[in-house]
Structures
1.
Amino acid sequence: MDGTVPKESPPAAQGRILDAAENIFAEQGFAGAGMKAIALRANVAQGLLHYHFSNKDGLYAAVIERRSGIINRDRISLLDQVNLEKQDPVPDIMEALLKPPLGPAGGGRAYARILAGLCVGDARDSALVEEHYDPTAKRFIAALQIARPHASARSISWGYNLAVGALIATVARDGRSDRLIGAVEKIEDLEKTVARTVAYAAGGLDAIIAADAPP
Amino acid sequence: MDGTVPKESPPAAQGRILDAAENIFAEQGFAGAGMKAIALRANVAQGLLHYHFSNKDGLYAAVIERRSGIINRDRISLLDQVNLEKQDPVPDIMEALLKPPLGPAGGGRAYARILAGLCVGDARDSALVEEHYDPTAKRFIAALQIARPHASARSISWGYNLAVGALIATVARDGRSDRLIGAVEKIEDLEKTVARTVAYAAGGLDAIIAADAPP
DNA sequence: GTCTATATTTAGATAGAC
DNA sequence: GTCTATCTAAATATAGAC
């Protein structure tokens, strides 16, 4: 003991700020989120946000960096477990891509909505996607190309992009499907949601490959 | 001649404002767009925006209303031409759904990005979707249910939602597919883009129906 | 590291002349 | 209907005490 006393453990102010920012950016988007509201939800003074993250852009980038790191690690870990020699590895590849962001470690609905915003966003968002997601994306595209060796590179990359689109629709439009059919029942469980999105992405990929094939 | 002189014909200030707002809302999102910037691009005084549309919410709603009216009219018109008795009408239904927003009358990339934002947006966006898009959505879901009578209502409605997700990915992520494979060629033509998205949505729908079927 | 208080800029909205 | 000028509120960011 040297007399120094650590104030708070891991989820110190810095972590609370990131959590609060993740939620508010998800709800309001980048421009709509306010530093004041984030500080309020994190129970810290507004000035502290600037001390730790310089400015709003820095805070936004920190949120993306933290969560994308977790998601990419999980994605790659699952992808490495896929046996590319098996009969049809595409569903396994899609599950490795789609399950991490849908699961609890993926930040739940909040971060998934940020991810959706990233994909339809402006130049700042594009730069963040390129930095934090492109490297992993290339890994998945390479795996899909191995699984479908006769497909064109363009079909494969669109199959990847449209799989992410299915992910976005799954997260962002949750609730609308039930509303449109007047359903009143409970929330689906995660397994079923993942299974449906995986089936959709795998089926869609093969459909565009078939449509692209020379007649 | 009575001395009165009409200032400008159809594309008067009101139309220019809507055009400018559509573009800036597309680029920046609702919160990011500024009334000042919209007025500047429309070449009108800022006060005029409030004279015509009361406030920012009113202007946003007017942009959605104008474009969704055109898209819904085109969608229903194409859907009514689909022969539901033919062997497999699903691709035709999907084309009726996806072609209008991708085409020139759909507002081009600008409005498509607004549409994407609507789908991942907050409460205000949900209300606008419910008002302007739900009625047409129900028509398409009904048509899909007729084309796939043995599929569950939930599979059908998710097939619809995920088709919209494919639309969003097609528009919003344009450019990323080529970047990821290092392509440097020209822009694809509209026909090919529509055909791929239609094939994806149709193939994905049947995949989730198959996955949902009792074993 | 954290807080309080404040500076600076920018936003949406309004008033009134033309 | 349109413009100029202005009001008021809110945002981000900073300064300095603790």
2.
Amino acid sequence: MSPRQSNTREKIVERARSLLQHHGLDGFSYRDISTHLGIRNAAVHYHFPSKDDLGLALVEDFASEIERDIEHAQRAGMPPKDQLEVYFQRSHGDASGDHRICMFGALATSYSRLSDAMQRAMVRLRSGVHRWLADTLEAGRRSGTLRFVGDPEAKAAVIATAIQGARQVNRMSPDDIVAVVIDQLREELYVPTSKE
Amino acid sequence: MSPRQSNTREKIVERARSLLQHHGLDGFSYRDISTHLGIRNAAVHYHFPSKDDLGLALVEDFASEIERDIEHAQRAGMPPKDQLEVYFQRSHGDASGDHRICMFGALATSYSRLSDAMQRAMVRLRSGVHRWLADTLEAGRRSGTLRFVGDPEAKAAVIATAIQGARQVNRMSPDDIVAVVIDQLREELYVPTSKE
DNA sequence: AGCTATACTTACCTATGAGTAAGTAAAAGA
DNA sequence: TCTTTTACTTACTCATAGGTAAGTATAGCT
């Protein structure tokens, strides 16, 4: 009706991201988006000419969301342990509520066939999250609220991959693997408060 | 040219499994298999009428391979730490050499659209591996060669998901995440030998 | 009022996917 | 030797996928 106010583009991104995190990039079509929104297939092509454009938009949308959150947490001077908790709870919420799998996991199988731009965006995002996690772990260990052995980079890799992996197999198990994994990571990382 | 000795079926499985672990189930077609083997498309359909039949065969092939290895290791009375090492090295070999991702990761995005038989096969395989890992960890801790806090089931979940996740993001990183993750897991788990 | 840009729709095209039916050559069995 | 079975091939069908071209209604600008 009034093209100017309808936020079709945002709705497309929202829907596409849900489809991506449930079925992977090869697992949904433009039709799955258009029928859901009650529009025509070509309308999706209007906003995102090729599927590669759409994929790139999804990754960039996701990346800016994550980067915004990281920046916000750091600017608020949130303690390392709390920052970790935000990460844990976001992961658990996405996974257990909606059964969404992690963006990296969703795109892993498609990776080698993605455009250069998209591959670069993924690499950049992953290294950014990894950087933040490693720094947070290191800060937490220095201030005595977190404990772990070895290199913060390596520990960050274990934590990130475990959560990602857990989000993927969650659907294949009767119990909530994501919750189990996060609880185990907490038990290993958190220094008990004085009396315990 | 003698149909009886040509092991086309096995070659199909081999090729399909490689494609599955590189591109996911939606990421390859019968054509990718047939052209690689120099046969016609319908020949693949002869052995595996539907893609679901093929997928099921791949999962079952993979499962019997794993189950055979587990049984062998246990019957040989291999110590827990050595059993773990076999698991680590197999994972690292697959991931770093051929850049194959884990079967669970490869099928995660397709999971909800898989046949019941295939879903059941995946659940069964996952719980089998998990059972073995948890038992091995527990035995290792009891005998003093492995150390970790918390429930063996939970620790098994962390280890399995971390390796799986690492195998998926390995292609998105310049360094060998699988190696980093496995080394970190070793450092956390292995009890140093007496003099150190 | 008239023009332009935006946000679509209708109506296509082409490639590719899974899948099938009918035919064929060779080996195995009776 | 004749028949059946195995392991294919040729030659298709049909659905869906991504993508495009041309048309249309509305909003905003001049």
